[in-house]
Amino acid sequence: MTVPSRPAPRVARGRFERFDLRANALFFVLLAILLCVIVFLVRTAANIVESRPLWAGVLLVVALATVPLCRSRWRRFSAARYARRAAEVLEEAAEQASDSLGAAEGEARPAPGGEEATALLDPPLACDNAYEHACDNAYEPAYDYAALDPDGFEEAIAELCSRDACHDVQVVGGACDLGADVIALTADGRRIVIQCKRYGEGNRVGSQDLQRFGGTCFTVHEADVAALVTTSDFTAPALDYAQQCGIVCVDGEALEAWRDGTGPSPWERAGVIEV
135 with 92: CB under 8 angstroms? Predict the structure, then answer.
C-alpha cells in the first residue's frame, strides 16, 4: 500500500529572509557616527558644566523657559489671526447685506419731488477731528471690553493696533509673557509693548502692577513705547510711577475714546508726553 506523500509547505520569502550586507554595513556605520556625536556632545556639556556651572545653569533655564513661550506665542498668534480674519469676513458680509437692503428701500421709496430716488441713505459723517484714521477704516470693533475675558480683551487691543496701521501685531500674553500681552510695530517703526488689565470698575490698577511691567517692558522686550491699558482706572501712586518711567497709562475712558476714534492711541499719547 502506497502512502501519498504531502508536499512540504512553502515558506514565504519575505523581507526578513533577505540579507543585504551593504545596507546593514551602512546602517551600523551611521549608528556608530550618531553614537560618537552623542558622546561628544555629552562630554562637551560635561566640560562646560564643570568649568562654568553658572553659565550652564543659565542656559538650561533659558532653554526650558523658551519652549513653552514659543509654543504659547505661536498658538495665540494663530488664534488671533484666524479671529481677525473671521471678523473681517463677517463685517464684509454685513456691509454687503446692508448695502443691498438700503438700495432696495431707496428704489421702492419715491422722492419728495415725485421722482424715484436712487438711494435714500444718510450721508456719511465727516471726520472733523485730529484722528481721521479711525474713520478711514471700514472695520471698527465695538466691544464691551468689560464683558470680555482676559484673552478676548488682549485680542481686542491687538485689533485696535492693526486698525491704526500697526504691523507685525502679536498677542503674546500667557504664563511666561514677562508682562507683555500685545507687541506691535507702529507705522513710524516704533516697537510698542502693551500690557492689558481687564479689571472691574471698582478694581483700579495699582503701583505694583506698574512696577512689574516697568521692570520688563524696556529691558526685556526692548519697547520704544510701553503702555498699560485697562478697563478701569489707575491709583495715584501708579500714575506717579508711570510718569517717572515713561509708561503710557490708558484707562477705561481713554480706551473708549481710542476705540471710537475721538482720542489718541497709546503711541500718540507717548508723543504728547515726550513733548
Answer: no
For 129, which DSSP code? S
Tell me the C-alpha distance between 53 and 47, whole Å. 9
pLDDT(143) > 60 = yes
Residue 28 main-chain phi, psi, to 5 deg: -70, -30
The grid coordinates listed for 259 are 476705540
Q: What local confidence, expressed as pLDDT, does residue 116 receive?
A: 40
pLDDT at 16: 45
Q: Under a CB-based contact definition with an 8 Å cutoff, are residues 237 and 209 in contact?
A: no
Region 181-189 average pLDDT? 95
Please name the residues in contact with 140: beta carbons below 8 A apart, sequence gap of 6 or more. Answer: 134, 163, 259, 260, 261
State the burial class of residue 261 (Cβ atoms within 10 Å of its Cβ: 0-12, 13-18, 19+).
buried
Is the CA virtual torsion 72, 247, 190, 232 positive or negative?
positive
Q: What CATH topology corresponds to 72-101+134-274? A: Trna Endonuclease; Chain: A, domain 1 (3.40.1350)
Domain boundary assignment for the chain: 72-101+134-274
Residue that wins the pLDDT comparison between 148 and 66: 148
Identify which has the larger pLDDT, 207 or 99: 207
